[in-house]
Design a protein that fits this description.
264 residues, alpha+beta, Immunoglobulin-like, 2 domains, four-stranded antiparallel β-sheet, 15 strands, elongated
Amino acid sequence: MILRFGAALALVLTTSPLSPSPAGTVTTAVPDPPVDVVAVAGVSSIRVSWGNPPMELGVANYVAYAEPGGATCDTLDWRTFGCVLGATAGVSYRVFVRSNGTSVPAYAPGSVTPRAPKAPHDVPTDALDLGVEVADSRAAVRGDGFLPRSTVALAAYRADGHATVTLPVAGVDGRVSASITLPPGTRTLLAQGVGPDGEVRALVAAVGSGSGGGLPVTGVRVLIPLAVGVLLLVLGAATLLAGRGNLSRRRQPAPTARPGGRER
């Protein structure tokens, strides 16, 4: 805090009428870069930390960058010294940080390579809903809330727990979109990766209940024909019952009269 006050006082003195800038020029102060930048690779992510510069004058926040790819993360103020970058698994990155996004870059030593996410043996019970549209043996998958540019594990589980995994990459908006072929017997789809906080994020959807060679699936395109079929069965049953009732009434014998005028 003393540094910030002293630096502010120096700025006032250097911009006072006693030391005017040359006529027609505008001086913009470029803040000092942060120090001691450290980058640690994780699952589909890079956790970056740093120290405040010796002179904090003019520092409002910090921006971290990963190259190649252009992934960035920033802080809300100058008192925060870390953030999490989304990254593609298996790619080697150089990481640097700028004060206000404009200072000289301060690089982390060496390069880092994030790991790919792995599908768990058991599907998480607390996972959120995954958007899925199934047609025949294809599934269009949509999920959001992942770190931008991060690798996501998309797993198709059979009844016996075996999972077939693909590795799509989330877009700059943190959404993952993929079209995959469902293996026979697929019951559940899971998309698992990393959220903006660097913690695990999982989305799940049930797509079938079979375990044989066929692929029983559910979805809008399957449920609509199923509902129409059920409705037709109900209408057919109602028509049949109504027809039997009319036939029964027609077959009843006509009443005959007893001697004395009474019917029996």
